[in-house]
Amino acid sequence: MPLSTIVVGGGIGGLSLAHELSIVGLPVVVLERAPKLATVGAGIIMNPNAMGVLEANGLAASVRSRSAPYLARETLDHRGRPLARRDYRPLYADGRLAVGALLHRAHLQECLHDGLLPGVIHLDARIVALDAGPDGVRVETEGGETFTGDVLVGADGIRSSVRARFFGAGEPEYLGYRSHRFVVPNRDGLEHFTEFLGHGRRVGLVPIGGGQLYVWTTFNSPRESRAWALESAEALPAAFDEFSDSRVRRAFGALASTDGVVCTDIEEVQRTSWARGRVALLGDAAHALTPNMGQGAGMAMEDAAVLAGELMRADRGDKDVPAALAAYVARRQQRVDTIARLSRQIGEEGQLTGVLACWLRNRRILRAARATERVQASLEGLLAWPPRDEARR
Ligand SMILES: Cc1cc2nc3c(=O)[nH]c(=O)nc-3n(C[C@H](O)[C@H](O)[C@H](O)COP(=O)(O)OP(=O)(O)OC[C@H]3O[C@@H](n4cnc5c(N)ncnc54)[C@H](O)[C@@H]3O)c2cc1C
User: Fold this and answer.
1) Average pLDDT in the 237-260 region?
2) Does 5-171+268-384 carry CATH code 3.30.230.70?
3) Atom 6 in ligand 1: which residue has the minimum CA distance?
């Protein structure tokens, strides 16, 4: 019997794993508690490494069909004065890196879902029991269904039940800022990811193709102050009125109501252990990271590709399931830790508040941007897929 996997959670990570396992012919079911797959949400950045995973698993073309290429990232201050420009195009020359893509989340979700055979995803699956023993795993749902398999994967997001059940409790850490995201028409015809750094707040404008502009924001706020920015269509723009660039003003001006605005607390999950016996965690369940590098979903996709490879080896009999899951963690942990740490640092710099601190930060960014070759080399190291050392495996 081929090795079978039960995945809890049908987000980007869970669907990616299901896709990776399906293409190597291993049976998989995905249990998703939502009654339908999310079609809401704003934009998403698929960095070159994420697109590298999608190139390898055959989904890149459908993802690119409704997206904008990620060619450059411009960083400006709150008045729109340029600080840095990172040109990704030299990194794409000769196929060194896969071309990054900027798109709507719903489209990404659709592409991941459409590649799966009917019967793989079980929606509205409310889990009432999770068990794992030396010989197999077992999941029961409220509807009375029982699923058995060889491996259980928790891809159930930042507040993972699988994590709580098998790896112990532990709340995500709130980092002191939250994000509001929405999509409006790209009236200024922006072609590049353009971010503005203010004082304790940032705005990013991301063209995602189809004449749409994804707007993401961050601002410092105590945890308990969640709702106020969404109380009216005026409250949110007012929180960002230090940004005087006309493109930012127009993006906020296009927001007729706050109905479609997604508000997320920025939190992290850091754990030393993501696998035990026949159970593993993947994506945000294992290592939710800050969004400052646009890499959380990318990390979940990389996890999925590596985990599927290890499960294929277990299926061939090269190793047993616990050894395969341990190898997955060993291959992923350092990479994820590096990205999470860099992402956290970018957030800390980006959320500075004092006038002097922000001025010094902007000077640092201006200075660092002049070392073009060093910037390009470090980007290439971070954004390669497979990572240079993994490519030899
Ligand atoms: C502001 C912001 C911007 C971001 N921008 C980017 C970006 O540009 N690029 C990028 O790569 N990443 C980005 N990320 C990160 C990215 O969104 C996440 O890392 C990614 O969605 C994680 O996917 P996941 O599948 O692990 O978890 P999730 O997307 O959270 O999916 C978990 C799924 O599990 C389901 N579920 C939960 N509990 C249960 C249960 N008990 N039973 C069954 N199902 C369950 C949920 O309904 C959900 O469908 C951003 C994050 C934030 C907060």
Assistant:
1) 93
2) no
3) 294
